[in-house]
Amino acid sequence: MNIKLVDLNRQYELHKAEFDAAINSVIAASAFIGNTSNPFVRSFEENFARYSGSQFCIACANGTDSLEILLKSMGIGMGDEVIVPAISWIATSEAVSNIGATPVFVDIEETYYGINPKLIEAKITEKTKVIIPVHLYGHPADMPAIMAIAQKHKLIVLEDCAQAHGAAIDGKKIGTFGVSASYSFFPGKNLGALGDAGGMTTDDERIAEMARMISQHGQSGRKHSHQIEGRNSRMDGIHAAILDVKLTYLDEWTKSRISHAARYDELLEGCDVILPKVKPGVKHVFHLYVIRSKQRDKLMQYLGEKGISTTIQYPVALPLLEAYKDRGFSANDFPVAAMIQNEVLSIPMFPELRPEEIEYIADAFVVSKAKKSVVNLHPDPFQHIPEWILVGEFILSQFDNLKLPLNLLAGTPVDIGDDNYIAIIIQ
After folding, report:
1. Which residues, in sequence order, are CB contacts of 20 under 8 Å at separation 6+?
2. Rounded to whole angstroms, how far apart are CA atoms 33 and 196?
3. Cα dihedral angle (194, 198, 203, 204), rounded to 10 degrees?
């Protein structure tokens, strides 16, 4: 069996008629470019604003642009500092640098992986203007604590919601805590287009007007009415039409993701890996199902041999990237992020993942000295416990051609050729 990390074709095949009709509608109307009069883009903006709980939504070309445009719309630029988490995709910090400001990195929480609010105040200076919390993997950052800090120091909060469409804290959707929010509609996201696309939400009319102007070459609604120098960051009509269809399924797909995560939790309980945690009162939308293992690289290789796609998000903490070597950071400056980068592993997660695939993935899991795993002993147990044990239908011994059934009980005699073995449970 071969299982993709994300199978986008499966989603297309299930909704082919609706997707094809949406694309054909755009072609029939020749509404390809996402200018201010494009009906498909306007429709999606209105629908996503309503879904996200914001007054305004401004579509743009991608999630990175959405961060940069919002920062510019809020007047952030040269000489300013923006606080960002040490673990995220580089777009979060890159956007800050690209407008002339300086990203200031803060370590993350070890349990939920969001920026650690307890460490933020120590990084605030007279130059600090914005905090960008990232709702990593689909789990909301600690927005109540972050907002309290921002209010105390009169800072702007821009939420990076690229991985968390529909996530919430005590029923309040992410993206509605701060002044504005950035979204990515990259194809693999919970709500994904057929290519790069992004969006910005806010309740601030001034920010919305400026963001739209910047994304449309500085035009104020009429062609050639360039009020400022802007940029070309428009969502194509085809992407908007597809997103409008997908938006109607987003809550259903989110329920499937949460259900898949619960099944993973059940099947992988007791394995020698750290499973995702969900903070009480939080709606985690599981853009990714991320486990942690001290033997991550061996585990990744073994799962790959079993046809199971995995990836690492992210293999290097932002401040430790080559791009920031001139800042002189070390792993000691961000101990949690430095640890996490060597342990995290994303396993398949998408709404159309099938029950038998989840079970196959769990059955193929390799763990080190797994709790409740059967191993064989002969004749001196602690000299012959294999380093790696397969958790699933069969357990591999140190002999490549030997398999023992999982339902063996501790103390069960096992006949293998001329030798006798005893099955035990590693606790």
Report:
1. none
2. 14
3. -150
| From 8-12, 92-96, 316-320, 419-423, the region with the lowest mean pLDDT | 419-423
Question: Rounded to an integer, what distance in angstroms lies between the CA atom of residue 254 and that of residue 237?
Answer: 25
CA torsion sign for 93, 238, 179, 146 is negative
50 C-beta neighbours (distance < 10 Å), count? 12
Structure token digits, residue 267: 């099947």
Condensed to tens digits (0 to 9), the pLDDT of residues 241-296 reads 999 999 999 999 999 999 999 999 999 988 889 999 999 999 999 999 999 999 99
Cα–Cα distance between 226 and 58 in angstroms, integer? 18
Name the amino acid, one letter, at 24: N
User: Which positions ≥6 away from 327 have C-beta within 8 Å?
Assistant: 319
Yes or no: say if 318 and 89 are a contact pair by the CB < 8 Å rule.
Answer: no
Write out pLDDT tens, residues 104-139: 999 999 999 999 999 999 999 999 999 999 999 999
Identify which of 95, 63, 284, 290 has the alpha carbon closest to the alpha carbon of residue 186: 63
Checking if the pLDDT of 374 tops 70, the result is no
Handedness of CA 362, 365, 368, 369 (dihedral sign): positive
pLDDT tens digits, one per residue of 315-373 = 999 999 999 999 999 999 999 999 999 999 999 999 999 999 999 999 887 443 333 33
For residue 288 the two structure tokens come to 């990714």
Enter the pTM of the model: 0.87
pLDDT band, residue 381 (cuts 50/70/90): very low
Token match 């600690």: residue? 142
Query: CA separation (Å) from 391 to 4, 163, 371, 422?
Result: 20, 30, 10, 18
> Tokens for 386?
């294999």
Query: How many angstroms separate the CA atoms of 155 and 131, rounded?
Result: 7
